[in-house]
């Protein structure tokens, strides 16, 4: 922090590989005082960094991407060891996406920040004589941004915060998830090698909530960008509200996959099936809540069961593995408790539901699990499980399906599968979600990303991230 690597006041804690339960490395235990020092260093660096030319900021972000790409092999191994992601996911969806986001915001630093406004003709009055008044809206950096990142992607998620924040001229304090912080330190070293000035990027870690709390409540912090659970987001929001700090919140999800009776079931199964495998279901955008029109319900359940049954659960380093472990023993127990809860609530476990044994029995593995015969009031239908678990609820007509999709506290991304695209778009307009996938789970990385309701506040991705990490200033002058 402050351009120097500092010994932590609290020593170090162990980072554990979810696949082997072996120690990957040691992460610093920062004290509350050290977090405040990091924020003050960011505050001191803001004045000069915010006045650097956009071309200089762009060059540093590009060079950082070069360093990350140069070390992509080692970075992917580290990400796999920390998160339990498969080799392909660590390479392609973690490290590679992190690099691409730094490239994107190197270009983003060069995007215009001024928006000219039409001149206004004013009559003479108490505020002055008659005349024409010109105006321009200009985006200015917010200041010091605390970036609190999620454990499910220690490359793409931090990159999606740090890079646009720096591109806009902000300085940052980064608080990684305690489970996998080592990748973020690798990112910080790449930025250091790329020539980022001292104090512009500061990383603080700790295994206890106190470090994150300090990074949020520090008076030197102007904005908090958080990705994680809705419960933690609400707590952060309360703290930010007291000081009116700017917030960007990407919180939980319970995405509805509305599968209509005219849908291409093969496409729907492929899309929904990613929940079982991608990050082992630890992704807030997953279509975990399947709403199946009754005419195709049984066929869809059978096809999803077949899909889940073909997925190989195992060591993420092994070729052919599709489903790796979840992040920790505690999270495995949480996911398993939801499956057991589903049984007690009356859901039918179609496939999965038992703890798989991989290799010597170590690792935090959860079998891909499909719960059918679910009803809207069940907790497994209403609450985010964040694991390789899919629930299926039948519905009769389109109106009922839309009502069920909207009957949730969440609203991040929903999905509609229908052979009639016009019908799907009509339904999408009625879904209370920040994004809707029509016959796809793919994302457009220039489209705004964020949630309705308890799924978040604000939007990022593409140029929307640049807007999120800036404040609008109006400048007016006499014409």
Describe the structure in brief.
With 479 residues, the protein is an alpha/beta fold. It has two domains: 12-251 and 455-478, Aldehyde Dehydrogenase, Chain A, domain 1; 256-450, Aldehyde Dehydrogenase, Chain A, domain 2, CATH 3.40.309.
Describe the structure.
This is Aldehyde dehydrogenase family protein. Pfam families: Aldedh. Keywords: Oxidoreductase. The structure is a single chain. The protein is an alpha/beta fold and 479 residues long. It folds into two domains: 264 residues, Aldehyde Dehydrogenase, Chain A, domain 1; 195 residues, Aldehyde Dehydrogenase, Chain A, domain 2. The chain contains 15 helices and 18 strands. The strands form four sheets. Strands 12-13-14-11-10-15-16 form a seven-stranded mixed sheet, sandwiched between helices. α1 packs parallel to α7. It is globular and about 75 Å long. The model has no long low-confidence stretch (mean pLDDT 96).
């Amino acid at each position: 922090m402050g351009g120097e690597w500092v010994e932590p006041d609290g020593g170090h804690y162990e980072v554990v590989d979810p696949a082997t339960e072996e120690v990957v490395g040691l992460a610093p235990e920062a004290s509350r005082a050290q977090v405040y020092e990091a924020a003050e260093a960011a505050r001191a660096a803001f004045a000069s960094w915010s006045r650097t030319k956009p071309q200089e900021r762009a060059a540093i972000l590009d060079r950082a991407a070069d360093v990350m790409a140069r070390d992509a092999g080692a970075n992917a191994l580290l990400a796999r060891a920390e998160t339990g992601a498969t080799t392909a996911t660590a390479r392609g969806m973690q490290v590679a996406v992190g690099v691409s986001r730094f490239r994107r915001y190197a270009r983003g630093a060069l995007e215009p920040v001024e928006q000219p406004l039409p001149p206004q003709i004013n009559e003479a009055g108490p505020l002055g004589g008659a005349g024409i008044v010109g105006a321009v809206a200009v985006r200015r950096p917010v200041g010091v941004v605390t970036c609190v990142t999620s454990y499910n992607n220690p490359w793409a998620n931090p990159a999606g915060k740090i890079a646009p924040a720096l591109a806009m001229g902000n300085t940052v304090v980064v608080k990684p998830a305690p489970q996998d912080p080592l990748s973020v330190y690798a990112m910080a070293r790449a930025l250091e090698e790329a020539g980022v000035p001292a104090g512009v990027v500061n990383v603080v870690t700790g295994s206890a909530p106190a470090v994150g709390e300090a990074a949020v409540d520090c008076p030197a912090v102007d904005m908090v960008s958080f990705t994680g659970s809705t419960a933690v987001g609400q707590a952060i929001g309360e703290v930010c509200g007291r000081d009116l700090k700017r917030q960007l919140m990407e919180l939980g999800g319970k995405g509805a996959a509305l599968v209509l009776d005219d849908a291409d079931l093969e496409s729907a199964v492929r899309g929904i099936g990613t929940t079982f495998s991608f990050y082992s279901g630890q992704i807030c955008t997953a279509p975990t809540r399947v709403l199946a029109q009754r005419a195709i319900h049984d066929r869809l359940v059978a096809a999803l069961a077949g899909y889940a049954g073909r997925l190989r659960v195992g060591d993420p380093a092994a070729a052919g593995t599709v489903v790796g472990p979840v992040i920790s023993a505690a999270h495995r127990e949480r996911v398993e408790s939801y499956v057991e809860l589903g049984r007690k609530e009356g859901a039918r476990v179609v496939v999965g539901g038992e703890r798989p044994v991989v290799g010597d029995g170590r690792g935090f593995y959860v079998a891909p699990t499909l719960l059918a015969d679910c009803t809207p009031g069940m907790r497994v239908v209403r609450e985010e499980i964040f694991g390789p678990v899919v629930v299926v609820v039948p519905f009769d007509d389109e109106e009922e399906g839309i009502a069920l999709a909207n009957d949730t506290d969440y609203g991040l991304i929903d999905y509609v599968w229908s052979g009639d695209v016009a019908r799907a778009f009509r339904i999408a307009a009625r879904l209370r979600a920040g994004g809707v996938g029509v016959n796809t789970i793919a994302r457009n990385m220039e489209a705004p990303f964020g949630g309705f309701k308890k799924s978040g506040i604000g939007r990022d991705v593409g140029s929307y991230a640049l807007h999120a990490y800036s404040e609008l200033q109006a400048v007016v002058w006499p014409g």
